[in-house]
Design brief:
Layout lengths: L3 E5 H4 L4 H7 L1 H6 L2 E6 L10 H15 L5 H11 L9 E7 L1 H4 L5 H15 L4 E6 L13 E4 L3 E5 L3 E5 L2 H17 L3 H14 L2
Parallel strand pairs: 2-3, 3-4
Antiparallel strand pairs: 1-7, 2-5, 5-6, 6-7
Length: 201
């Protein structure tokens, strides 16, 4: 693999979004430590079927892809077994705004809040939420996944960037650590989820 790959979505979605989602299962299965930051949406490892369906169907429509929403959602949800099987460790950090972005409607979001709170209780999962009013030691950045210390992936509107250079991976690791340090956990995180639920009316 090259030290950095710029992979246009147009090249990896030619066979559909479902095939792309399923193709990444081996990467998830061999990763032992996930470090995730998402500023805009619930990370895929914590999405409900309804939330993922709303998101994937919109992505497919936006890019004009063949409609294989069901296969794409199945592929995404299949990865979630790493939360409960094997010896994987998952650290997710999200911005509070993720809870305020209504994906799929109020009913979908209520279910998503329940699921997110349940995922946070899993023994090998840590969920941190950065409150909107917290003083920023680290600025919001694009979302990214760190797979062990082997690679980092970040998604742009037109492409995915895959980084495997150790020095650049270290930047992502330090960024995640800074963002995690601003987040709240446990009861404080659950309180933010409940605030967002209340705001739905």
């Amino acid at each position: 693999m090259n030290e950095e790959q710029y992979v246009p979505w147009s090249t990896v979605t030619q066979t559909g979004l479902g095939a792309l989602q399923h193709s990444e299962w081996p990467l998830y299965e061999r990763t032992r430590r996930f470090r995730i930051y998402e500023p805009g949406v619930v990370p895929g490892l914590a999405q409900t079927e309804a939330y993922a369906t709303a998101l994937m169907s919109r992505i497919i429509a936006f890019y004009g892809l063949p409609d294989d929403t069901a296969a794409a959602v199945a592929g995404r949800l299949g990865r979630q077994r790493v939360l409960r099987e094997g010896d994987h460790e998952v650290s997710m950090v999200i911005e509070e705004w993720v809870l305020r972005a209504i994906i799929g409607g109020a009913g979908v979001m209520r279910e998503q809040f329940d699921h997110l709170a349940a995922v946070a209780e899993l023994p090998r999962v840590t969920l941190g939420i950065i409150p909107m009013g917290v003083p920023r030691a680290m600025w919001p950045t694009t979302g990214f996944f760190l797979f062990d210390d082997a690679q980092a992936r970040t998604e742009l509107p037109e492409a995915e960037v895959i980084v495997t250079t150790p020095a650049e991976i270290d930047i992502y690791a330090r960024t995640h650590a800074e963002l995690a340090g601003m987040a709240v956990y446990g009861e404080q995180a659950r309180a933010l989820i409940e605030d967002a639920r209340a705001a739905l009316g």
